[in-house]
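Researcher: I need the complex structure. Ligand is nicotinamide-adenine-dinucleotide. Inputs:
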Amino acid sequence: MSGFKGRTALVTGAANPGGMGRSHVLLLAERGANVIAADIDRAGAEATVAAATKLGVKAYALVADIRDLQAFKRALGEAAAAVGPVDILVNNAGVGGERLAFDAIDEAAFDRMFEVNVRGGFFLSQAVAVSMKQRGWGRIINISSQFGIAGASNASHYAGAKAALIGFTKTWARELAPYNITVNAVAPGYIDTPMTARTVADPARLMARLTTVPAARKGEPIDISYAVAWLASDEASFVTGQVISPNGGETI
Ligand SMILES: NC(=O)c1ccc[n+]([C@@H]2O[C@H](COP(=O)([O-])OP(=O)(O)OC[C@H]3O[C@@H](n4cnc5c(N)ncnc54)[C@H](O)[C@@H]3O)[C@@H](O)[C@H]2O)c1
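Model: Output:
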């Protein structure tokens, strides 16, 4: 796979030491991209940037809440001035893990799920696409979930939010293809991160979950980063509007 030298990648939700966003940042940086690690968590974002800098690329910590789009866009302007305009956007910031039956989801729980997982990525992509269009090259990768494809018991607010990202992906792909911008979604299966830590920590829940995965293992963040890096690469220039679900065969 060719490298990302000369490209700048923005990954949202990139602070968590064991999370997928940091893994995406570090793989893209290892392959030569300058990186912007965005998160609400300053210390975590700065630690991601410190690790990326050691790989010899320019790296910038964008600290903002994706629900506050004006503040986020201001910070994005400063980040782009420091490391370059965004060529690759990975909409990874998300909230999840909350299990509520359909009739127990109140307006606050619904809004929390949609504000971060859906609204934030929508308007950030809109902002970033302006300069991608001007430069005639771009990659937008939306991090959905296999729950957005197959549904999930007691998580319809999360599954619905992740399904919305698939709708955006297919529609933006059509609208942005004439500008040489591809838009794809990665829909992870069960990945071992802080978001799923409670399941992993409970042996009974872990075993129950793994019986549904033909590969008989949980995924690691890097399993998802490889899919992200391929979709961001020149090799994937004819791939757009697609959903890749690395999930060990759990949803086929
Ligand atoms: N772990 C899984 O099994 C799994 C499966 C499918 C999809 N996903 C999705 O993958 C993505 C990454 O998840 P993860 O498991 O690495 O979890 P994570 O909690 O490590 O990552 C989410 C990151 O988003 C950040 N974030 C949350 N709210 C924010 C806000 N308002 N503004 C800015 N940043 C904010 C958090 O601080 C965190 O660093 C999420 O979108 C998640 O829904 C996870």
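Model: Summary of the prediction. The CA atoms of residues 10 and 36 lie 5 Å apart.
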